[in-house]
């Protein structure tokens, strides 16, 4: 299907989505469960809300008291419905209700009532993105499926299947204007972590998000191919990103310096060149020739104690396997 067709389907989908959707006000679970070691996370979880204007996503850390999957899920959904701070608001409109059920160790189904049909495009997108992102931060949940009154969600002439972090991008901090599709060329470490492999990805994103940020956000979500290695720990944030005179400057939070756990840990240099190659290959309109990295605003630091950041990184084809 071409891009124009997908855009039409998406618009129609939103209308249909608002024609089907959100039932049951409580939280229900079936008898399937996930073990405690899959769901507990010492550093808490992220719950996504909207700003007071209702134009962008805002996330807040949440630490549940429960230690079992059902308890954690119930607490997080309660927090999703009712934020405990006044600077954000729930992405769930008052007239909309939903219930959830665990359909396996990796997927959660969310069923909406018919009031979902009254939502405008922006509200629907923010709700869908906020809930999917919130649920995916629970250990053991890899995808979220939406239904409307127990019927599969259909947008345009396409049935919408399980959604994950790569399904769509909704910006934090800025408002939403229009949405478009992007074909990204991403890179992730592979093998013993000294080389990288391409991963092509199509995302639906807001035009308020610049392509460089989109690329980095997608890479921070990790590879879809499970044989590839992640480039950062989950809590890594983009502090700032800018483009000037053909150079892209990416400022990460301090978490970028923590290597993801695993049997194989990627070479720090490979990680930096994976970011660099992805930005240069995906953001061709900006004609970027080099990338500079900062951590908490500083280049006077070694990336994971090995690579000097006070330099410009250019595209490296030799590391692509």
Q: What secondary-structure arrangement, pairings included, does this model have?
A:
Blueprint: H1 3-17, H2 36-39, E1 45-51, E2 57-62, H3 69-81, E3 88-89, E4 98-102, E5 107-112, H4 121-136, E6 143-148, E7 151-152, E8 154-155, E9 158-159, E10 168-169, E11 179-190, E12 195-206, H5 211-220, E13 238-244, E14 247-252, H6 268-282, E15 290-295, E16 302-303, E17 307-308
Parallel strand pairs: 5-6, 10-12, 14-15
Antiparallel strand pairs: 1-2, 1-3, 4-5, 6-7, 8-9, 11-12, 13-14, 16-17
Helix pairs in contact: 5-6
Which whole number gives the mean pLDDT? 82
The radius of gyration is 20 Å
Share of helical residues: 10-25%
Q: Biggest β-sheet, characterized?
A: 4 strands, mixed
Distance between the termini: 30 Å
Order of helices and strands: HHEEHEEEHEEEEEEEHEEHEEE
Q: Roughly what fraction of the amino acids lie in strands?
A: 25-35%
Q: What is the overall silhouette?
A: globular
Secondary structural class? alpha+beta
**Total domains, how many?**
2
Q: How many E strands?
A: 17
Unreliably modeled segments: 1-42
Major sheet: arrangement of strands: 4-5-6-7
> How many H/I helices?
6
List keywords for this structure.
321 residues, alpha+beta, 2 domains, 4-stranded mixed β-sheet, 3-stranded antiparallel β-sheet, 17 strands, globular
Explain how this protein is built.
- The protein has 321 residues and is an alpha+beta fold.
- The chain contains 6 helices and 17 strands.
- The strands form 6 sheets. The chain has a 4-stranded mixed β-sheet with strand order 4-5-6-7. A 3-stranded antiparallel β-sheet has the order 2-1-3.
- Strand 16 and strand 17 form a beta hairpin.
- Helix 5 runs antiparallel to helix 6.
- The chain is globular and about 55 Å long.
């Amino acid at each position: 299907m071409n891009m124009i067709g997908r855009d039409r389907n998406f618009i129609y989908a939103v209308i249909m989505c608002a024609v089907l959707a959100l039932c049951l006000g409580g939280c229900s679970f079936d008898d399937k469960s996930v073990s405690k070691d899959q769901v507990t996370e010492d550093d808490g979880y992220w719950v996504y809300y909207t700003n007071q204007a209702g134009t962008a996503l805002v996330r807040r850390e949440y630490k549940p008291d429960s230690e079992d999957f059902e308890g954690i899920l119930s607490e997080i959904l309660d927090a999703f419905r009712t934020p405990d701070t006044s600077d954000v608001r729930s992405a769930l409109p008052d007239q909309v209700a939903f219930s959830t059920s665990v359909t396996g160790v990796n997927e959660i189904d969310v069923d909406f009532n018919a009031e979902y049909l009254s939502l405008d495009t922006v509200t629907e997108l923010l709700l869908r993105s906020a809930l999917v992102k919130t649920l995916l931060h629970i250990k053991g949940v890899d995808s979220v499926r939406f239904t409307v009154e127990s019927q599969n969600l259909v947008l345009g002439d396409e049935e919408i299947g399980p959604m994950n972090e790569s399904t769509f991008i909704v910006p934090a901090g800025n408002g939403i204007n229009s949405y478009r599709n992007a074909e990204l060329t991403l890179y992730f470490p592979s093998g013993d972590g000294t080389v990288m492999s391409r991963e092509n990805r199509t995302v639906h994103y807001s035009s308020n998000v610049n392509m460089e940020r989109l690329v980095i956000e997608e890479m921070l979500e990790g590879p879809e191919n499970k044989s590839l290695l992640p480039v950062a720990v989950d809590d890594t944030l983009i502090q700032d990103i800018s483009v000037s005179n053909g150079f892209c400057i990416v400022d990460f939070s301090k978490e970028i310096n923590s290597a993801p756990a695993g049997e194989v840990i990627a070479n720090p240099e490979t990680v930096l060149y994976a970011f660099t190659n992805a930005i240069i290959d995906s953001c061709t309109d900006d004609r970027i020739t080099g990338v500079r990295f900062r951590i908490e605003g500083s280049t006077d630091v070694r990336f994971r104690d090995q690579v000097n950041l006070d330099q410009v990184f250019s595209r490296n084809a030799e590391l692509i396997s």
